[in-house]
Amino acid sequence: MMNQDDFFKKITSHAKEYGFIFQSSEIYDGLSAVYDYGQNGVELKNNIRRYWWQAMVQFNENIVGIDSAIFMHPTVWKASGHVDAFNDPLIDNKDSKKRYRADVLVEDFLAKIEDKIAKEVEKARKRFGESFDEQQFVTTNARVLEYRSQHETISKRLYSIMETNDLPAFKTLIEELGIVCPISGSRNWTDVRQFNLMFSTQMGSTADGASEIYLRPETAQGIFVNFLNVQKTGRMKIPFGIAQTGKAFRNEIVARQFIFRMREFEQMEMQFFVRPGEELQWYEHWKQERMKWHLSLGIPASKYRFHNHEKLAHYANAAADIEFEFPFGFKELEGIHSRTDFDLEAHQKYSGKKIQYFDPELNQSYVPYVVETSIGLDRMFLAMLSYAYTEERLDDGSERVVLKLPPVLAPVKAAVLPLVAKDGLPEKAREILHSLRYDFYCQYEEKDSIGKRYRRHDAIGTPYCITVDHQTLDDNTVTLRDRDSMLQDRVNINELRRYIAEKIKPLVG
Ligand code: GAP
Q1: How far is the CA of 379 from the CAs of 4, 251, 267, 270, 501, in angstroms?
Q2: Co-location of 376 and 329 in the same domain
Q3: Within a 10 A sphere around the Cβ of 340, how many other Cβ atoms?
Q4: Ligand 1 lined by 376 (C-beta under 6 Å)
């Protein structure tokens, strides 16, 4: 497994060099945990969003989409619980004046213990060679057992502190573990305090009596408050879903993981409204459906796993994450939550408006239960980028970097390249480009040697390179080079559309 820092360095510089992601406001030294998507990044991001939208809205008769505003009435966030409970426990170092998430300081400490165990295992592997039995070693070696026991004790204390929100105990734990500030190296800590993660701003001028409003920390509430609007105007019958993609904002304190944890990010969420009592069935259904969506991109199943939550938020009666194996380990990519009737009940209470559904089959009205699927678009982007990024040594000793992106998500589907920029080849290449561009995003390039152009398109994940040469003018054929195998086929120009369409077809529909 790659070290987190090395991985982020590699991916960040590739993403920048090839126009995928730039630091926000870079000329002013950037804004922490905020990023801009470049010319290739925006294509990849749009393709992920479209692939999700098609799967959720286009392929499900009973799911419709909306696009609600980022600003919402402030009471929405009171009702949802975000004003009172959307907090992180933070601690400041008095010498460096740096602020940290208390739980992350302890988790980093736990990660160091895990590293020590891994080092012991590696040392032993070298010592015993072929005959090394890792399972036996980690269950019998005294030093490993000691590390494991430390790890377990600290994890249990952390879990209990988080559960009971015992802030003084948090500070005691950090002090007892001797955790130092990575900047100042000192143990001079403040008390642990809860900080709300929502960004707030003022709406209206102060003279008018401006009111404090929030930038939404999740898109879901825009769906809940529109439940009746959509149900009535769309004549939707339960069970049905409402999907939405859009920006969300959180004042994240740990902000060193590139686009894994951002302060401004995008979510793709779907709330599925069901009869009370049927929610756990639907929860299972959506867990499976969402996993199928991920697998339809052709990425090995071993890269994904479910993590069922044992500790549930107060509004949930079941919750799981779909975790993806990033190069720095399995991490949350998507959440599937059975949120009961918590949100609609809360909005009913705070707004004083009845939010119910009359079920004609049961001849009764009720507040529907909700199963939610929620995936971070930027996090999915990072999953795809990190999975796809491949350094290869070729037979001739040279190296290439290739992004093995699922073709349906690739920013550019095909590059059309005249072998040389003369003899009528550019004109022919443009003719091909124009015939394909209504269906696929293709690019024309004539600068540099053909080898360099292939490498550039490998580096942004273009599945096909179409090369126009002198033979093209005689027999209407081109070479079609496959990104991953680098094999070249001679095909008729009339066949190109079929080849590209076949390549970008999802595995399930
Ligand atoms: N409505 C439910 C909800 O917002 P969440 O687990 O807080 O649940 C859902 O967020 C998904 O949004 C996560 O699985 C993750 O992919 C993404 N996400 C959350 N915070 C993020 C952040 N700071 N930066 C990037 N993505 C984030």
Answers
A1: 15, 17, 9, 17, 27
A2: yes
A3: 19
A4: yes
By mean pLDDT, which of 95-109, 359-373, 406-420 is the weakest?
A: 95-109
0.85 exceeded by pTM? yes
φ and ψ at residue 221, rounded to 5 degrees: -65, -30
Pocket of ligand 1 contains residue 322 by CB under 6 Å: no
> Per the structure block, which two tokens stand in for 386?
């990190």
Biggest distance spanned by C-alpha atoms of the chain: 81
Are 243 and 368 in a shared domain? yes
Number of independent structural domains in the chain: 3
pLDDT single digits (tens) 196-219: 999 999 998 766 666 899 999 999
Q: Is the peptide bond before 411 cis (omega within 30 degrees of 0)?
A: no
Last residue of a domain, which of 353, 368, 396? Answer: 396
Residues 496 and 432 in one domain: yes
Find the 263 Cα to ligand 1 centroid distance in Å.
11
Instruction: Specify the DSSP class assigned to residue 261.
Output: S
Type of residue at 422: K
CA distances from 467 to 210, 483, 493 (A): 61, 13, 11
How crowded is the C-beta side of 7, counted as CA atoms within 13 Å? 20
Please provide the distance, in angstroms rounded to a whole number, between the alpha carbons at the two ends of the chain.
Answer: 33
What's the mean per-residue pLDDT of the chain?
94
216 lines ligand 1 (CB under 6 A): no
- How do the residues of the chain divide into helix, strand and coil, expressed in percent and rounded to 5? 45, 25, 30
In whole angstroms, what is the distance from residue 58 CA to residue 63 CA? Answer: 8
* 262 C-beta closer than 6 A to ligand 1: yes
